[in-house]
Amino acid sequence: MSRRSVVRALSAILAALALSAVVSSALVQARATAHAAAATVNVTAKEFHFTLSKKSAAHGKVTFKITNKGALKHDFKINGAKSKMILPHHSASLTVTFKKAGKYAYMCTVPGHAAAGMKGSFKVT
Fold it and tell me: What letter does residue 110 receive in the DSSP assignment?
């Protein structure tokens, strides 16, 4: 094989590697964007129940965006993390990191609210 043939072959290999790196980077970015979208759960609080936009998410960081559409103040507690107290017609966010799959209980910690129905289970895969 001549020196010129070797240079052409190496150039082709380097070009293929560069293309592979670009495609791989684009796929990683697309997955991260899809994961970020999947990691947001909208929560509506109202007397005396929660409505979640999703009943499950992949393990990792999940942001719960809680909107209080009720007439009383509420909060949202899950996996040991708790939102601030949310006044009627206000919102708050709570980001929780789930390290493993399983079912996680959520609830409103205002006395009597969980007993009245403001509780449930969230599945992490």
Answer: S
Q: Which of 64, 30, 69, 32 is nearest to 49 (CA)?
A: 69
Dihedral sign computed on CA atoms, order 93, 55, 50, 102: negative
∠79-90-117 over CA atoms, to 5°?
50
CB 73 within 8 A of CB 110: yes
Q: Could you give the CA distance from residue 123 to residue 125 in angstroms, rounded to a whole number?
A: 6
Specify the 3-state DSSP secondary structure of 116: coil
Q: What angle do CA 91, 81, 63 make, to 5 degrees?
A: 50
Per-residue pLDDT tens for 2-53? 777 766 766 767 666 666 666 666 666 655 554 545 589 999 999 999 999 9
Domain ranges of the chain: 1-38, 39-124
CATH of the structural domain 39-124, one choice from 3.40.50.410, 3.30.70.360, 2.60.40.420, 3.40.50.720 = 2.60.40.420
